[in-house]
Design goal:
The chain is of the alpha/beta class. The protein is built from 17 helices and twelve strands. The strands form two sheets. A nine-stranded mixed β-sheet has the order 1-2-6-5-4-3-7-8-9, with helices on both faces. The termini are far apart.
Length: 367
């Protein structure tokens, strides 16, 4: 039964013109991935924008044949799948509007680890960047963070290696299928990560590491973490793309400052200068900003005001959090019907008043 469900889940991602957003909508409309394929063609044709194409695609036997081949690959190499409706699907990623419908994972790590950081940067890492990466990760060992990166040369590889050396789990998010490793020189590192972390991708076996795949890979890195740290980056490149995506997901973004005339720090300095990232210099800065360091020196205790006049939006948000205990900003806006701008300003005011607390990953709870 599970294999049959997986067949249709994989098949859903193979339908031409159906991306992650539309794929989830189809499942919500029809009830399941299998139901999409079993829906009468006359009903499928009525769906806006994609009706005729969808009706033709589900009748194409080649789609499910290709899905069967992928199932054989998954079973042969003991790869696990994470469907967006599964309980073990990464919860942080689930709240991202364009998260993958289906993920392929091989490894041992918990993708829903309590504290997760992403570390990205240039492929042309300097000794300064490598040293900073080492010190950041070593300084967060006691927090038992899960370290996520992209298995690329430079800062990515350094982050994975240091994590393994420090005894932390680390996840490499790939821009290709699990039948290969790119870059090839990282294959030994990837093998170690399978035992102390893992490899994650949304791409099928046989998918080459084409350039167009890496921005999609970057959104997974951004979505998986509570905080994204840019160590070194040029003025263009994947690290800045990942930072922009992380900001759009309401993740905390940090950057390590570099020399003003260093081309490999130009991107990180730009993120700080334009308020796209907070400046951090050491692990303690991240702990402080993420609220992970208890009883830090000079901590200001916020007292809840007994009598407080709240706006209708604030009252609605407090009632929502009383019912749901804690929730991310996206879920709050969707469920409450309050716009993102009003919700953000109202939550900030409630935080100042000692009513609400902001947890890592823009998750809110009542104090």
């Amino acid at each position: 039964m599970e294999e049959e469900q997986l067949l249709y889940q994989i098949g859903l991602t193979l339908i031409p013109g159906v991306g992650d957003i539309l794929g989830r909508k189809l499942v919500l409309i029809c009830g399941s991935a299998e139901a999409v394929f079993r829906e009468p063609r006359r009903y499928l044709k009525k769906m806006p924008r994609i009706g005729d194409l969808l009706a033709q695609a589900v009748a194409n036997k080649e789609i499910l044949l290709r899905a069967e081949k992928e199932i054989a690959f998954v079973e042969r190499y003991k790869i696990s799948t994470r469907y967006f409706q599964d309980k073990d699907y990464p919860q942080r990623l689930k709240h991202c509007y364009d998260s993958p419908v289906l993920l392929f994972f091989k490894g041992t790590a918990d993708l829903n680890a309590p504290r997760t950081i992403g570390i990205v940067g240039t492929r042309n890492a300097t000794e300064y960047g490598k040293r900073v990466t080492h010190d950041l990760i070593a300084g967060l060992v006691h927090q038992q963070v899960l370290v996520v990166s992209g298995l690329a040369y430079g800062i990515d590889s350094c982050a994975h290696r240091v994590s393994i050396d420090q005894g932390l789990n680390t996840i490499g998010v790939l821009g290709h299928g699990l039948d290969t490793v790119y870059p090839w020189l990282n294959r030994t590192l990837a093998e170690k990560m399978l035992l102390q972390g893992g490899l994650l991708t949304e791409f099928f076996s046989g998918t080459k590491p084409d350039r167009m795949n890496f921005p999609k890979r970057n959104r997974i890195i951004a979505g998986l973490c509570d905080a994204l740290i840019v160590v070194e980056a040029g003025k263009k490149g994947g690290a800045l793309i990942t930072a922009d995506i992380a900001n759009s997901y309401n993740r905390d973004v940090f950057a390590i400052p570099g020399r003003i005339n260093d081309p490999f720090s130009e991107g990180a300095n730009y993120l700080i200068r334009t308020n796209r990232a907070s400046l951090v210099q050491k692990a303690e800065d991240i702990e402080y900003l993420m609220g992970w360091k208890e009883n830090f020196e000079g901590q200001k205790v916020v007292q809840r005001r007994i009598f407080l006049e709240m706006t209708p939006e604030e009252e609605k948000l407090v009632e929502f959090l009383q019912e749901h205990k804690q929730a991310g900003i996206d879920e709050i806006c969707i469920q409450s019907g309050i716009t993102m701008s009003k919700a953000s300003s109202s939550l900030l005011n409630l935080e100042f008043e000692g009513i609400v607390k902001c947890l890592p990953g823009k998750v809110y709870t009542l104090l």
